[in-house]
Specification:
Radius of gyration of chain B: 18 Å
Order of helices and strands of chain A: EHEEHHHEEHEHHHEHEHE
Number of helices of chain B: 3
Number of domains of chain A: 2
Order of helices and strands of chain B: HHEH
Distance between the termini of chain A: 35 Å
Largest sheet of chain A: 5 strands, antiparallel
Shape of chain B: flat
Oligomer: heterodimer
Number of strands of chain B: 1
Largest interface: A-B, 57 and 38 residues
Number of helices of chain A: 10
Strand content of chain A: 15-25%
Shape of chain A: elongated
Radius of gyration of chain A: 25 Å
Structural class of chain B: mainly alpha
Helix content of chain A: 40-55%
Distance between the termini of chain B: 51 Å
Strand content of chain B: under 5%
Number of domains of chain B: 1
């Protein structure tokens, strides 16, 4: 079926996949982002593009811009984009496009593929048999501080010293100590995260540190203190996951106040950029 | 299997938006239609969604059906 046959539709581009993989794999039909259109595959020289038709009145440049400002629309379509990408990723090496990448005609898409031919093939080669995992660490600050107070040898020493002081002096000494504990605990928390990250990085092909999300975004009472993504070889992820699992259990048992959360496997969104 | 217990099937909307709106290959140019940078649109998403709910509630109270 020719995707550009109808003039009132555009071509929504999900991902590039290696043509050879596409031709060696049979997959069931997949629903596109706009019913009743399904996902189609257009093959070029060595690259196959996963696309679907979309109505022009919703996806022309101006209208698309308007649509993405509607959060309900955005939510539904972003979910679809994500789910579809996951499905493709179970069958193929995928180079995911950013949400909302659209071409007016097949020949325009073809031009883009021709222009970016080298970039696409290099990236596909790099991402072959790899997947992305995201690790977030949250800190329950009160619990972290109290566990720190119990276990830190310097704190013990300071407490003993304070007990020797007169009641009047104790008040200020305690206040000072609490300030010190707050700062020391915070530094401790960051260095714990950094060390753990370094360990995870050993099992990874690539990593990217992300911004910590604010509480008003996560809606959690615990503060996010680490957020990073890891590119893993599919057949070598066990060590990475084992390492995380034991850290998680250790944290839960020890009431350290740190909470480890992992999501994956993801298509390699964070590692899909063309070199300038 | 170990992986089962680690894998978070319940990926949040925020995770998804963060990945699909901000990451992935970007193609820009005359040949391609793409969204202008909206990577931070979702930053106040929760607040916005919450306020949408609130507006609805208020509407329901003002115009009981």
């Amino acid at each position: 079926m020719d995707v550009s046959a109808q003039t009132d539709t555009l071509i929504y581009l999900y991902a590039f996949i290696p043509r050879r993989e596409y031709e060696q794999t049979e997959i069931d039909s997949l629903e596109g982002i706009e019913a009743p259109y399904e996902v189609e595959f257009i093959s070029f020289k060595e690259i196959t593009a996963a696309v679907t038709k979309v109505p022009e009145e919703e996806y022309s440049e101006a209208n698309l811009q308007k649509n993405v400002e509607n959060l309900r629309w955005l939510q539904e379509k972003a979910y679809h984009h994500h789910n579809l990408m996951n499905q493709l990723h179970t069958h193929f090496t995928v180079l995911p496009l950013k949400f909302g990448t659209i071409h007016e005609t097949k020949s325009r898409l073809e031009k883009v593929v021709e222009n970016q031919d080298n970039n696409i093939l290099t990236m596909l080669e790099q991402l072959k048999n790899k997947e992305e995992w995201n690790v977030k660490i949250y800190a329950d600050k009160d619990q972290f501080v109290s566990s720190f107070m119990e276990n830190d040898s310097e704190v013990k020493k300071k407490k003993e010293e304070i007990n020797q002081l007169s009641p009047g002096k104790q008040f200020f000494a305690k206040k000072k100590m609490n300030e010190w504990v707050d700062e020391k605990a915070k530094a401790d928390m960051i260095s714990l995260c950094e060390k753990f990250h370094e360990k995870l990085a050993q099992y990874s092909m690539d990593t990217e540190l992300k911004k910590n999300w604010e509480k008003k975004i996560t809606g959690r009472k615990e503060e996010m203190c680490w957020n990073s993504v890891y590119l893993l070889k599919k057949n070598q992820k066990e060590q990475f996951l084992d390492c995380l699992q034991s850290k998680k259990e250790e944290a839960e048992k020890g009431n350290t106040g740190l909470i480890y959360e992992i999501t994956g496997p993801w298509p390699a969104y964070h590692f899909s950029q063309f070199k300038e | 299997m170990q992986q089962e217990s680690l894998e978070n099937k319940d990926v949040s909307l925020l995770d998804i938006l963060d990945a699909v709106l901000d990451k992935g290959v970007v193609i820009r140019g005359d040949l391609t239609i793409s969204i202008a940078d909206i990577d931070l649109v979702y930053l106040d998403l929760r607040i916005l969604l919450a306020s949408v709910e609130k507006v609805k509630e208020t509407d329901a109270r003002v115009h009981p059906s």
